[in-house]
Amino acid sequence: MSVLIVGSTALDSITTPHAKNPRLLGGSASHAAVAASFFSPVRMVGVVGDDFPRNYLKLYRKHKIDLEGLQIVPGKTFHWAGEYEVNMNNRRTLATELGVFESFTPRLPEAYKDTEYVLLANIAPSLQHHVLDQMRRPKFIAADTMDLWLNIALQDLLKLLKRVDCLVLNEGEARQLTKEHNLVRAAKAIHKLGPAYVIVKKGEHGAILSSQAGMFVSPAYPLCKVIDPTGAGDAFVGGMMGYLAAAGGAVDGKLRRAMIYGSVVASFCCEGFGLQATTKATRARIDSRVKELEALTKF
Amino acid sequence: MSVLIVGSTALDSITTPHAKNPRLLGGSASHAAVAASFFSPVRMVGVVGDDFPRNYLKLYRKHKIDLEGLQIVPGKTFHWAGEYEVNMNNRRTLATELGVFESFTPRLPEAYKDTEYVLLANIAPSLQHHVLDQMRRPKFIAADTMDLWLNIALQDLLKLLKRVDCLVLNEGEARQLTKEHNLVRAAKAIHKLGPAYVIVKKGEHGAILSSQAGMFVSPAYPLCKVIDPTGAGDAFVGGMMGYLAAAGGAVDGKLRRAMIYGSVVASFCCEGFGLQATTKATRARIDSRVKELEALTKF
Question: Mapping DSSP to helix (H, G, I), strand (E, B) and coil, where does residue A49 land?
Fold first, then answer.
């Protein structure tokens, strides 16, 4: 089965205490699509400008990502610049240049409209709505979001929650959305807003899944060195959705393992700048880390 | 098998946004001893003043804690007062009155000196040394510590690390001790200081164990409501050591499960002020939460 991924496609300039990396391939759709590509065919919807490096298109193609839904339009590609502090947990934005992303309207090629697994990666909720408006009968829809949309597009987001099966967000966002500090209670409050599945990402501490079938406490793969965590959350949800699409059928009973696969792809993501380490992963290396995680959590 | 527990025995006055609770039974040894008592006989070493409430002695006895090593001396019992912020993660100390604890010298009754499992709960490293000086041939020694000792008694602590099998400390302390932000690397650095087993506590995010046999990522039991986290770390290590002592023999292959049992006792600890919820736990309720944790982490 294919997975449809809609989100941002960007150039990221990332500074850490150890290095400066201008104009890396980035954006929520890029990270999620490459992550998903290890498991299933990916259809990507996004927009880039005519300045978008050709070798980045080549990289998408190397991962067999269907680019019929990628608009290439005159103007500049969305550019984000950020800087990480020494501990790699805190980052600040240095620049956000929306470029062609400012007037982006996701248009789904006819062939995409029947895709059964849909990942609305992090973009404005109004664009996520617009994608769903074009879909026929998706089987499973997951949406990622960020604090920005809680701040400036809350009503759109609340409406979106009625239309998706799964919401993925981080701890701080779960607390902000529900005004609940306790994450177990925050997840319960989010169910009442719509999604049957709620996944709260906790970075290096893993993630928790809440659903009717109960909770799942998912570990993160312990890393000796984090080079650049940008996109790790997108890689997590991308890997998860790719795994689910490959498995096919109902997600219950598969979502836990899908999260573990997502965690492992996210761990590769953190080991290099931008997509540098993710693109060097292979299905065999991913399977091997999943086995390690099994051993690391057994008691 | 018995477990020997040495640490502080105190009266805690705890304020949260919801309640004020003066002079609760507290201290690292009290929390650890009650936690361990669900699994094995406990020998406790500590000191209290003549103001120590009789019903707290009764509570120790109800848990069959051997009090031959508890000194009751003229003067005031160690008193700590603290206040938690709304999210229950940050706390500040309002008062610390050492009382009889200031001149405490742990003296081991003859019968205690052969105990095979020893928990040096959080007290000054010099006192932890003094306990080990009196022991014959303990099989497994775990030491807990806190940032205070890293700040004012680092040399004593470093010497202690050469004498213990297992060091238990929290994330911030592991980073402070090793100057390593990454916890995997921090644990490796601590091994070089002595302990074959390093356990890093991460509160609501669980704990990690590092040893020659590899790492173990231990989950925390997810709680809907945290009433008072004071002593949860002591309950964790106490429960763990009680479980190990009950199992007997070498700890390898048992330590993971021991940590899970410790986590579960710590979860009860958080559900009431001081020891109020811990003392209401039973072995059956503990076993039931361990089963829940098995289900919560299966993938």
Answer: strand
Query: Which of B18, B217, B254, B264 has the highest number of chain A CBs within 10 A, making it the mutation to test binding with A?
Result: B217
Q: Which of B181, B252, B299 to mutate to test the interface with A (most CBs of A within 10 A)?
A: B299
Name the residue of chain B whose CA is nearest to A87's CA.
B181
Nearest-Cα distance to chain B for A132, in Å, is 30
Contacts of B179 in chain A (CB under 8 A): none
A212 close to A6: Cβ distance less than 8 angstroms: no
- Tell me the chain A residues in contact with residue B297 when contact means C-beta distances shorter than 8 Å: 216-217, 219, 297
A87, A182, A217: residue with CB nearest B181: A87
* pTM exceeds 0.90 for this model: yes
Give CA–CA dist B76/A210, Å, rounded. Answer: 48
B88-93 long-range contacts, Cβ below 8 Å, gap at least 24?
B88/A181, B88/B16, B88/B226, B88/B228, B88/B229, B89/B203, B91/B230
DSSP assignments along chain B, one per residue: --EEEE---EEEEEE-SS-EEEEEEESHHHHHHHHHTTTS-EEEEEEEETTS-HHHHHHHHHTTEEEEEEEEESSPPPEEEEEE-TTSS-EEEEEEE-GGGGG------GGGTT-SEEEE-SS-HHHHHHHHHH-S--SEEEEE--HHHHHH-HHHHHHHHTT-SEEEEEHHHHHHHHS-SSHHHHHHHHHHHS-SEEEEE-GGG-EEEEETTEEEEEPPPP-S--S--TTHHHHHHHHHHHHHHHH-S--TTTHHHHHHHHHHHHHHHHTSSTTTTGGG--HHHHHHHHHHHHHHH--
Arithmetic mean of pLDDT, A23-36: 98
Contacts of A181 in chain B (CB under 8 A): 86-88
Q: Which of A175, A191, A217 to mutate to test the interface with B (most CBs of B within 10 A)?
A: A217
- Which top CATH class is B3-297? alpha beta
Per-residue model confidence (pLDDT) at position A192: 98
Cα–Cα distance between A91 and A229 in angstroms, integer? 10
In contact, A36 and A247? CB cutoff 8 Å: no
Report the residue from B256, B257, B295 with minimal CB separation from A214: B295
Which residues have C-beta within 8 Å of that of residue A48, sequence separation ≥ 6?
A9, A70, A71, A72, A73, A77, A78, A100
Contacts of A207 in chain B (CB under 8 A): none
Chain B residue whose CA is closest to A86: B181
Q: What is the length of chain B?
A: 299
pLDDT digits (tens, 9 = 90+) for A141-184: 999 999 999 999 999 999 999 999 999 999 999 999 999 999 99
pLDDT tens digit sequence for B211-257 = 999 999 999 999 999 999 999 999 999 999 999 999 998 898 899 99
ipTM over 0.90: yes
Considering only CB atoms, B224 lies closest to which of A184, A204, A214, namely A184
Q: Which residues of A touch B252 (CB under 8 A)?
A: none
pLDDT digits (tens, 9 = 90+) for B91-125: 899 999 999 999 999 999 999 999 999 999 999 99
Chain B residues inside the 8 Å CB shell of A263: none
